[in-house]
Design a protein that fits this description.
There is one protein chain. The longest helix has 24 residues, at 171-194. The chain is built from 6 helices and 9 strands. The strands form 2 sheets. Strands 3-2-1-4-5-6-7 form a 7-stranded mixed beta sheet, sandwiched between helices. The protein folds into 2 domains: 1-104, 3-Layer(aba) Sandwich (Rossmann fold); 110-209, Formyl transferase, N-terminal domain (Rossmann fold, 3-Layer(aba) Sandwich), CATH 3.40.50. It is α/β, with parallel strands linked by helices and 209 residues long. Helix 5 crosses helix 6 (171-194). The structure holds 5-O-phosphono-beta-D-ribofuranosylamine. The site of 5-O-phosphono-beta-D-ribofuranosylamine has 12 residues, from helix 1 and strand 5. Residues 12-17, 90-91, 111-113, 182 line the site of 5-O-phosphono-beta-D-ribofuranosylamine.
Length: 209
């Protein structure tokens, strides 16, 4: 059985997290289990959902540490204890601390609600991403699952899926249209990883299927 840890933020609603947990539990992602969800607040909606689905949770709150290094090492310790084959960021809004990127090279994935490298980077999260897509005048947007490196939204791209932008869309409608596509794309990327079907060559990820 392969092991997945999921990292969320304080206010995360956790819908991508839920999609991955349920896909493991139903066998859609075969021979895999989410063994831990790590968040920043014990009462976060995502952590409550994880517990209701029978998954262990842990809290590492960056505000409770004297500095970024202390937070990074506490988070690393919690993640290493879970012995994950893969770590999934699901609404984790911070830059992943370097010691974690180094300890789990090409073993951390993130989902971003746009077609990277467009509309990514520091501060590009939530409705801001969708507003930027609308402002650009583009007729399509989408989501991206990528491996995580030491910068925001720049690691090798694993999968992308598109969705049309209609003239009457607001950032909210766009977010709502994309969310189920995000869930499908993330599940697919995790399944491919767990089945050993992803090969990273420089900045490109080959899918052997
Ligand atoms: C999603 O839109 C994801 O693309 C982004 O943060 C949001 C998290 O939503 N990284 P949820 O907590 O998974 O519902």
């Amino acid at each position: 059985m392969k092991r997945i840890a999921i990292l969320v933020s304080g206010p995360s609603r956790g819908s991508n997290m839920r999609a991955i947990i349920e896909a493991c539990q139903s066998g859609r992602i075969p021979d895999s289990a989410v063994v831990a969800v790590v968040g920043a607040r014990g009462d976060a909606p995502a952590l409550e959902t994880a517990r209701a689905l029978g998954v262990s949770t842990a809290v590492v709150n960056p505000r409770e540490f004297p500095d970024a290094d202390a937070y990074a090492h506490a988070l690393l310790w919690v993640l290493q204890r879970a012995q994950p084959d893969l770590i999934c960021l699901a609404g984790y809004m911070r830059l992943l601390p370097k010691p974690i990127v180094e300890a789990f090279p090409m073993q951390v994935m993130n989902i971003h609600p746009a077609l990277l490298p467009l509309f990514g980077g520091q501060g590009m999260y939530g409705l801001r991403v969708h507003q930027a897509a609308l402002d650009s005048g583009m007729k399509v947007t989408g989501c991206t699952v990528h491996f995580v490196d030491e910068r925001y939204d720049t690691g090798p791209i694993i999968l992308q899926r598109c969705a049309p932008i209609h003239d009457d869309y607001s950032p909210e409608t766009l977010a709502a249209r994309l969310l189920p596509i995000e869930h499908e794309t993330y599940i697919e990327a995790v399944r491919l990883f767990m089945q050993g079907k992803l090969r990273v060559e420089g900045n490109r990820v080959r899918v052997d299927e």
